[in-house]
Design goal:
Largest sheet: 6 strands, mixed
CATH topology of the largest domain: Rossmann fold
Number of strands: 10
Helix content: 25-40%
Shape: globular
Oligomer: single chain
Strand content: 15-25%
Radius of gyration: 19 Å
């Protein structure tokens, strides 16, 4: 499967980091003093019970929210006060919990829309529609890579929920991110789609960093190199899955009595 360029074998390096990341909403501290390092060519999971602050951390990293305190660094540049659109252009791209595709466009056209910005076609509205044909080869490559070749000409509205999420990942990859943030990518998916997306994430992480919020612990155990566990906005534990799953505090706070 060829989602992106040939995999590299570079030593792990930190490409996205946070230090002392804190966010208050009035008197409520949603995130408190979080330190986070996301490495190139690694899948990093952010897990924790509902209300732990996972999505707030995502919103802070992507600058949808401004931190109350702390700093964020992307690819060596301080982005603590950088606007979200500029952060995205620097290579930090995210997906959302709710599928965000154009329902009345085909799978192909959804991917072509996403490809317009990196190919400098997003604002050239005076060009004929045929000018987008140059995007077809890359669009077809992405569509095939995520397993949507049979649905290439189908309307996005006609896809199952899980396949819409797969399409969203294809449109996110069209932006050629250096750091990819996935917010609950497996939510609402059937087992077949979970397997497909897990394989996509593995392939993507060969050439870029992936940070994901995910509740499916089997997926986390299977594909994630590093896990950070949040509870009430603070880091409770971190390490590989085998390490954090045996931490009694994590078992009590998140995993309950289930086998880890």
């Amino acid at each position: 499967m060829a989602v992106s360029a040939t995999a590299t074998h570079e030593e792990p390096r930190v490409v996205l980091s946070a230090r002392g990341l804190t966010k208050h909403f009035g008197a409520f501290a949603a995130v408190k003093n979080v330190d986070l390092d996301v490495e190139h060519a690694r899948v990093h999971a952010l897990i924790g019970p509902n209300g732990a602050g996972k999505t707030t951390v995502f919103n802070l990293l992507t600058k949808f929210l401004q931190p109350t305190a702390g700093s964020i660094t992307l690819l060596g540049s301080d982005i603590t006060k950088t606007a979200p659109d500029k952060v995205a252009r620097m290579g930090l791209v995210r997906s959302f919990q709710i599928s965000a595709v154009f329902p009345h466009l085909t799978v192909l056209d959804n991917v072509r829309v996403a490809l317009q910005r990196p190919n400098n076609l997003a604002t050239q509205f005076w060009l004929p529609m045929s000018s987008l044909d140059r995007l077809n080869a890359r669009a077809d490559e992405l569509i095939e890579a995520v397993g949507l070749k049979r649905e290439r000409d189908a309307l996005a509205a006609d896809l199952s929920y899980g396949r819409k999420r797969v399409l969203e990942i294809a449109t996110t990859l069209a932006l050629d991110p250096k750091v990819l943030l996935l917010d609950e990518p497996m939510a609402g998916m059937g087992q077949e789609d979970i397997g497909t997306v897990s394989n996509i994430i593995r392939e993507v992480a060969k050439t870029r960093a992936v940070l994901m919020v995910e509740h499916n612990l089997s997926v986390v155990a299977d594909i994630c190199h590093h896990v950070t566990v949040l509870q009430r906005g603070e880091i409770l534990a971190e390490g590989d899955y085998a390490t954090v799953s045996q931490d009694e505090r994590v078992r009590l706070a998140y995993m309950g009595s289930e086998d880890a």
